[in-house]
Amino acid sequence: PAQLPTRGTIFFLPNHPTNCITSQKKVQIYSWTIAGSSGLFFRDGKKRIDYILVYKKSSPQVEKRCTFEKNLRAEGLMLEKEPSLTNNDIMFVKIHAPWDTLCKYAEQMNIRMPFRFHLRCRQIKSWLPRNPMKLDKEALPDLEETDCYTAPFSRARMHHFTINNRETFFSNSTRSRIVHHVLQRTKYEDGKSKMGINRLLGNNTYEAAFPPHEGGYKSRHPIKTHGAQNHRHLLYERWARWGIWYKYQPLDLIRRYFGEKIGLYFAWLGWYTGMLIPAALVGVFVFLYGLFTMDSSQVSKEICEANTTIMCPMCEDTCEPWTLSDSCVYAKVTHLFDNGGTVFFAIFMAIWATVFLEFWKRRRAELTYDWDLIDWEEEEEELRPQFEAKYSRVERVNPISGKPEPFQPFSDKLSRLMVSVSGIFFMISLVLTAVFAVVVFRLIAMEKFASLNWYFVKKNWQFATSGTGVCINFMIIMSLNVYEKVAYLLTNLEHPRTESEWENSFALKMFLFQFVNLNSSTFYIAFFLGRFAGRPGKYNKLFNRWRLEECHPSGCLIDLCLQMGVIMFFKQIWNNFMELGYPLLQNWWSRRKMKKGGGAGQNVDNKAQLPQWDKDWNLQPMNAHGLVDEYLEMVLQFGFTTIFVAAFPLAPLLALLNNIIEIRLDAYKFVTQWRRPMPARATDIGIWHGILEGIGVLAVITNAFVIAITSDYIPRFVYAFKYGPCVDKGHHHEDECLRGYMNSSLSVFESNNSLHRYCRYRDYRAPPWSSVPYEFTLQFWHVLAARLAFIIVFEHLVFGIKSFIAYLIPDMPKDLCDRMRREKYLMQEMMYEAELEHLQKERKKNGRRYHHEWP
């Protein structure tokens, strides 16, 4: 037909006959799509698709859908429907926002657009080291930079803005954001609460709603010779491919395609990964120091040579006395993580966390300036439709905008918050109950392993108990994911005002649940294991049945290392599988069903022939919670890297290796496996920054307690300077000063065993032949005082250094502050000059018209 565009691709589908084409086979015209941009435009090849709605033809919600679409057209949007090529029951609604509608809502949403004066230079000189994940502009020659001033769009001042082409003035992400704004506020029934696409998705009126990708991410031709087909193709080639894991991230392009919120996430993840490099190097050096000094350690030597030192049984009934030299390997492995570099590394990581956060503030300030987010405030964020519907009857004047808006009374907010807090405490108590169950399992397994006939397990029963306990604890951690739904329900119960408030509230709940779930067993091993076991002849028992577990003679630190290593390693593997492997399997299964399914799916032999909306529909939707899961995984990893780093110096190295993979996993997932998320704006990483600062404070406290209580650093220090052979003899080598330490740290117990009348145990108690048998010795009180003094000195010293560093590093570079002030001044001058120039042109035009019309 002559009305069709002159170029394009024709798809065919039965049940729509036409007499325009003659052939031996029955073929019918299905729809028209532009060549090279299949599925990006309406049938006329001119109107760009800004959003896609998907519904089932068999859905009974026809009336709601018709009313909703009618109201969308009344708001100025244009709609066009297409059936799916892969599923006869699926129908797509393509949405296009015309120029007038875009201008109307851009003004309502205060979207900043380029001003017509191009005098801006956004390059900021900074004394910060070059970000290892910064945009490599030389690798992206096709990416155009816009260094012009921007201002909130206004139809009355449209002549001030740079409008060279109406089709490209609003970017694809901006167009999608405007359409999403309309979809969120359009009614589908009469009534104040009957509005928004979210509710229609919830009651299955629509199956999905998403902005389309800008085309395919692969091309037959190399990008170096033929260039990129679209921004998605460019992102895949320069960001998501595994072969460029060492390349810089194209943050500007990520922000342009996915929005500022996702761009800030990858900027933060890149900055965090780059800052892990020095931490990982120092951690490796500390570990290597322990490795090289393992055989020469005086404590390890004494344990390995103690062939005649008989130790008391470690459990009841089934355990027998054993020699201290049996734990030689255990003592050497403990020295890897408990050596002279432990205190230094703990102080280093506490300072590192502060430097990381302070430098990130500066990096964020530069990004918000480059991305034109300086003047964007949270007050400009729209209210959630659910909040508007719930509290539409109660209004108050917004103190910032001066306009009336829905308001949540304080009494209602407080009551809902109390219910939410009660739910949080209930879930945390559930997690602590699970930890208690693991403790009971360890007590039972301890006796069972010690009584086995298998010599290897019987000899290493303590390691077997710790290993199985850690594995069971990990399975419990992964199975307690029900709290995600609980957090979702509790957050919705609170009725947050804006989307950012909803996300912050949900993120805080998820962090609390996950943090307690992940770290409660680690805290138990670090601070409670072996502290209340008692002594021989007077052991404390759980339920008067199971004797409480006690630490190994070489300390509890090896149990803490094992706990952290297993959980950190396996959790990262599981997270990586769930992030990439699970979507890959889902997409593969969808393609398999599409090939095996009947109906329309049989008419498509090649996936490349599918229009873009069908391709996107077959992809997985982005997580319903947005970036919460992505941030949560990294923040929990940050906690593991800093909180117990004194016990596991290789944690930063594992985190670095994981994050190098994580960046490409997330990039590949966003570009190839997920539907395009709705581009959203943000000026920071939200509540996660406060959580990171809280973790930094907690890390200082926990590392102080780990060094003072869990490790043997303080007892060795007290012995060397108070009881050892070097006292009053001047300075000697550390190993010489620790000679006899192991014997000093072991007490004597008189047992009823006929073979071994006396046995040794780990404590500072008087011998049975003294006047006060089994009472604490003076050395015990010296060690206790030294531990308390170390905690106080360590915390005050590190907190003082952290505060001093935070004071030295301003949150915003001085050059950026001066540039912002200068820009604000120039912007006011240019707006005045532009308005004056426009008035002069209008006067001249009116003068000529008056002169021409005068008779």
Throw out a few tags for this protein.
single chain, 855 residues, alpha+beta, 4 domains, four-stranded antiparallel beta sheet, two-stranded antiparallel sheet, 18 strands, transmembrane helix, protein dimerization activity, chloride channel activity, transmembrane
Protein described:
With about 850 residues, the chain is α+β, with helices and mostly antiparallel strands. It folds into four domains: about 50-110 and about 155-210; about 260-375 and about 400-600 and about 610-715, no CATH class; about 715-810, no CATH class; about 815-855. Helices cover about 55% and strands about 10% of the residues. The protein is built from 28 helices and 18 strands. The strands form eight sheets. It has a four-stranded antiparallel β-sheet. Strand 11 and strand 12 form a beta hairpin. It is elongated, with a radius of gyration of 34 Å. The two termini are about 55 Å apart.
Count of individual beta strands: 18
Task: Characterize the main sheet.
Answer: 4 strands, antiparallel
- Principal-axes shape call: elongated
**Structural class determined from secondary elements:** alpha+beta
Helical amount: 40-55%
Unreliable stretches: 1-37, 118-146, 598-605
Number of helices: 28
Write down the Rg.
Answer: 34 Å
State the separation between the terminal residues, measured CA to CA: 53 Å
Whole-number total of structural domains: 4
Q: Spatial order of the strands in the main sheet?
A: 4-5-3-8
Mean pLDDT: 78
- State which percent range the strand residues make up: 5-15%
Family: Belongs to the anoctamin family.
InterPro entries: Anoct_dimer, Anoctamin, Anoctamin_TM
Protein name: Anoctamin
Keywords: Cell membrane, Glycoprotein, Membrane, Transmembrane, Transmembrane helix
